[in-house]
């Protein structure tokens, strides 16, 4: 049985937030299990829209896979740089 590999997550996700189309800014690189109510659960490769960078190395953001909002440690996500939807699939 073939399992989903999540390869589609290497393209940029977009979604409508507050009536405005937004593209993901970051990708989760580690799983993060919330310990507090305001924290955001992350799985590896989750597309994230970072909405605010806090001073203490935490981000406030939106998980585009789950539709949840919250805070998470900044080093759990890498910024997606220079990728556009047109460039998806050209790297290999």
Automatic annotation (TrEMBL):
Its main location: cytoplasm. InterPro entries: JIP1_scaffold, SH3-like_dom_sf, SH3_domain. It comes from the Eukaryota. This is JIP2 protein. It is found in: Cytoplasm. GO terms for biological process: JNK cascade; regulation of JNK cascade. Residues 21-82 form the SH3 domain. Belongs to the JIP scaffold family. SUPFAM superfamilies: SH3-domain. One of its GO terms (cellular component) is cytoplasm. Keywords: Cytoplasm, SH3 domain. GO terms for molecular function: JUN kinase binding; MAP-kinase scaffold activity. The gene is Mapk8ip2. The keyword Cytoplasm applies.
């Amino acid at each position: 049985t073939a399992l989903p590999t999540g390869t589609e997550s290497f393209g940029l996700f977009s979604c409508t937030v507050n009536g405005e189309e937004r593209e993901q800014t970051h990708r989760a690189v580690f799983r993060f299990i919330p310990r507090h109510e305001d924290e955001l659960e992350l799985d590896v490769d989750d597309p994230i829209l970072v909405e605010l960078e806090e001073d203490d190395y935490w981000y406030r953001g939106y998980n585009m896979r789950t539709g949840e909002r919250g805070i998470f440690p900044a080093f759990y996500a890498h910024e997606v740089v220079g990728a556009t939807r047109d460039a998806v699939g050209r790297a290999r």
